[in-house]
Specification:
alpha/beta, four-stranded parallel beta sheet, three-stranded antiparallel beta sheet, about 30% helix, about 25% strand
């Protein structure tokens, strides 16, 4: 059974809201892991009255160090403590589950879409004509030249490129238009 750490923005939320979000995290982690999980209690309801944000972060990082997997709840990438916990999880090899559900019902900017794309999330514009069109990050790119397989390796981007997937196939090396870059209607594609 894997030990689950839950990182979630808590500022301005009631205890009930926090606990509901934690239940969602637990269910998603069970689905991803394919088994029950042992939840690490990182919701400090009995914290000292004068505890500062750094106190909470220190305790959270201590608990995170014992986790096998960490779930980052919706909005984590905009919460200072969650971003630090995420960085620690990634740098120290703790598997992560990242929730981007806040983008499912409303559009996002091209910048946010690109950041999600780099994490392996498929994205598309609501304004695109084809219903099954999206872009995703393609990795391990290679081509054949004179019977030799050449693996691409660019100094800045490594062995990756943006692929456009549409009704007539895949286009490697997709380039965004001005309209795509300025649009606020980017969405996550399942």
């Amino acid at each position: 059974m894997k030990k689950l750490f839950i990182s979630q923005p808590m500022k301005g939320k009631s205890d009930d809201e926090i606990l509901r979000e934690r239940e969602k995290a637990i269910q998603k982690a069970k689905e991803v892991c394919g088994e029950e999980v042992e939840v690490i209690d990182s919701f400090f309801q009995a914290a000292p009255a004068d505890a500062k944000p750094m106190w909470f972060l220190g305790k959270s990082l201590e608990l995170l160090s014992t986790a096998d997997i960490a779930y980052f709840a919706a909005g984590w990438h905009e919460a200072r403590g969650c971003k630090i916990e995420h960085e620690c999880a990634v740098e120290y090899g703790i598997d992560t589950i990242e929730d981007y559900s806040e983008y499912e019902d409303e559009g996002m900017s091209f910048g946010v879409a690109i950041e999600l794309l780099k994490k392996g999330v498929k994205v598309a514009r609501e304004g695109w004509n084809g219903k099954k069109q999206y872009i995703q990050l393609a990795t391990d790119i290679s081509y054949t030249f004179e019977d030799e397989v050449i693996n691409c390796d660019h100094e800045a981007i490594g062995n990756a490129a943006i692929a456009f997937v549409g009704t007539s196939g895949v286009q490697m090396g997709w380039l965004a238009s001005q309209a795509d870059m300025l649009a606020e209607d980017w969405v996550i594609v399942e």
